[in-house]
Amino acid sequence: MGKTIRDESTASAYWASVNTFCALSDVHVIADAPVGCYNLVGAAVMDYTDAIPYLENFTPTSLTEKEIASSGSSEIVRDTITKLQEPGRQLILVSSAESEMIGSDHERMLAMQFPLVRFFPSHSLGENEWQGRDRALEWLFKNFDDGRPAAVEPGTVSIIGPTYGCFNSPSDLAEIKRLIAGAGGRLKHVFPFESRLSDISDLKNSEVIILMYHEFGSRLGKLLNRPVLYGPFGIDETSTFIMELARLLGCEQTGEAFIAKEKQTVLAPIWDLWRGPQAEWFPTVRFGVVAAASYANGLKKFLADEMGMQCLFSHITEETDNTALREQLASVQPQFFFGRIVDKIYLAELDAKTRFIPAGFPGPIVRRALGTPFMGHSGAVFLLQEIVNSLYDMLFNFLPLNRLSEAGETPTQKPEWDAEAEEFLNEAVKKAPFISQISFGRELKKKAELLAIRQGKKTISKETVSLVL
Amino acid sequence: MCPAFGGLRVLTRIDGVQVCLAADQGCLYGLTFVSHFYAARKSIVSPELMNVQISGGSMIDDLRRTIEEIARDPSIRFIPVVSTCVAETAGIAEELLPKKAGNAEVLLVRLPAFQIRTHPEAKDVAAATLLKRFGAFGEPRKPKSLVVLGEIFPLDAMTIGTILQKIGVESVVTLPGRALEDYVDAGQAEACAVLHPFYGKTVDLFREHGVKIIGGNPIGANATAQWIRDIGAALDLDSAAVEAVALEESEKVREVLGRFGGLSGRVIVAGYEGNELPVVRLLLEAGLEVPYASTSIARTVLGEDDHRVLSMLGTEICYRKYLEDDMEAVVRLKPDLVIGTTSLDSFAKERGIAAIYYTNNISARPLFFATGAAAVLGMISGLLNGKESFRAMKEYFTGNRNTLTPP
């Protein structure tokens, strides 16, 4: 028996195939799918995750009742291919959950009639987005590698990963490129973004392969038979990344010099914040993360292990039961939540004071500027900057302000507090962000007292407090 | 947009609702995303529906279990079970689903994209399915009561309410409604004013139960007066009062049109919402040239009046359009302004033509009566005046220009 899903937050292998193949500039993808599967992936969601108006190299067969109930999709696939064939354009046909439901397998038809067009069965009813991306990249190599033996060019590095639907990838990619250059490497390819299909044959000639994400790409990485490094988070991983890359490229000294320079430049704000009063708040900061694996683990490693903040939870999206998460949030709310739109919804349902920071899909967000990385040294600085600025904001909102309208509301005779009410108040205050607990408690106390006076009560009970919460 | 979204938009906005969506992972991800973005900040709950469940034949049992789980929350009063392509292909027998669970009514709403084609039509399917189940058609009719059918901008709803009250309408229900009770009460209405031409199934249902149907909408001067008169006649209201309001309102629209008298330009309207033609009529009345209009829906009986007027005034109308039809029209007709789907919008901007996304801009403004005319024409006037900026941006990014302002 299947499980119950609340707010599905991981796409299917069909999405994976479109996101992967359409990122290649000379590929055109035909989706054997009803029109909705085209609209959602190619326009409606793409617009709000990647800030791309629509995928120009993507066409659906727009399956209707006729194909589903009687004729099958072969004819409409043939028509679509005929319309789109063009020299210099590789057509890739992908199946959707619906075409798989009606058992459309076009492998043989293509071999007979359109030998240059390839069919990628997306296995959309069995595999999720990350499994699908992993398989799609492997499939590209198996279908389009030129088969020549590798001729490794010393000093070159290729990056695999940046694709449509990868949260914040432009900024992270820019940072990884910066780190590669700093460590003494020369960038060969970024695949599939920034690449043409034929570049797949040149990946194996790179001295080192960087997999941006832990979620996908390792199958292709293995086939390339080159040393592999992953996109790093925080201070230690990034240092290790630079040193390891420099070692693999045979330029350890460049790597060491780069790290030394980083400490004086890009990374210097962390040393400055550390020496200032700001870092003293870190141990009181309680945060939670729900994101794709690289981000979930990376944020925890940097913010908790290195900066000493309290990680209440760090969940990987595809493993997260949103119903359980929603219940958990009702009792404990972090001060910072790095998450997806669904998390923002759950927080809004609770009217939580939590500061929400987008850190994963699903969710509408533009992250195309190159200055918002989470990875690498720049990412570490950006994250701390975001957190400290939010703390300043919280402080600002709790500092007293002279409001003329409030004059005269000061109670003349203070009512008494009963023990239960006081206990209840203290519990409520504990849920507020640490740095503002004192002022929050004072404010609550005042409100309760005012209410009691208005109601003509001499003692404040638990009920009175609950009314002002 | 995926057709099923139209139904989800109608359903997720109902108070006390918890949608149970029967769909595969990819479909769930996409529909949940657009629902959260465009419909309601509410969860979408589903049973897992992958190969294992389909080949194992457990889909119905999984659905029933999920419905029960949802119903454990006593605040849930309505559980629409929405089935999309994969679930519909696998087959759901409605009689195997409960009609009630906990405090909630349970209702199957079938929304396969391969059958319904467009999201406006899915709104009709959802509204008709709700009305069929909940409409109190057996109860006595409330005199002088009206259903206003069609999603409209909040300010439009307020204006409509004020005007209907002035002419003596005693109660109004707007559909698609925010409460399940709206669908119950709609069954007791005397007449239904259907504002959008794609509500064919819902209108048929009203008609079957003897509810009078009023077509058209209060857009533009003549149509506004006519619409008010038609409602007066259908509900047998005081004709002098009705006529006075009809004249007053159409005069107000004329004043607005007069204010925009200097407006000129060639505009293409090519949305996918199904309510494009009345907008075209307003533009034509304001003196703009609209050589081409297209929509995602088929030609309908409810839209016939608009079709006739537009054709007479020289607008070529394309129903069930493809993006390629719209693109071809842009290239052929070289408009000054395109009001289109996102893809067409981008296509036009890539050519340096002023363009906006129909859904986000037309649906986010009042459209009816004088207020609506002023809002829409004001926006269009602004775009036409600013059309140079679209050319400048195009030349900057795709040509030799190095500054946006002329040197």
Describe this structure in words.
The complex is a heterodimer of chains A (469) and B (407). Chain A is α/β, with parallel strands linked by helices. Chain A has 4 domains: 117 residues, 3-Layer(aba) Sandwich (Rossmann fold); 113 residues, 3-Layer(aba) Sandwich (Rossmann fold); 127 residues, 3-Layer(aba) Sandwich (Rossmann fold), CATH 3.40.50; 65 residues, Helicase, Ruva Protein, domain 3 (Orthogonal Bundle), CATH 1.10.8. In chain A, β12, α16 and β13 form a beta-alpha-beta unit. The longest helix of chain A has 23 residues. Chain A is flat. The mean pLDDT of chain A is 93. In chain B, β4 and β5 form a beta hairpin. Chains A and B meet through β1, α1, α2, α4 and α6 of A and α1, α2, β2, α3 and α4 of B. β1 of chain A pairs antiparallel with β2 of chain B. Chain A: This is Chlorophyllide a reductase subunit Z. Chain A: Keywords: Bacteriochlorophyll biosynthesis, Chlorophyll biosynthesis, Oxidoreductase, Photosynthesis. Chain A: It holds the Pfam family Oxidored_nitro.
List keywords for this structure.
heterodimer, A: 469 residues, alpha/beta, Rossmann fold, 4 domains, four-stranded parallel beta sheet, flat, B: 407 residues, five-stranded parallel beta sheet, 14 strands, 15% strand, bacteriochlorophyll biosynthesis (chain A), photosynthesis (chain A), Chlorophyllide a reductase subunit Z (chain A), EC 1.3.7.15 (chain A), Nase/OxRdtase_comp1 (chain A)
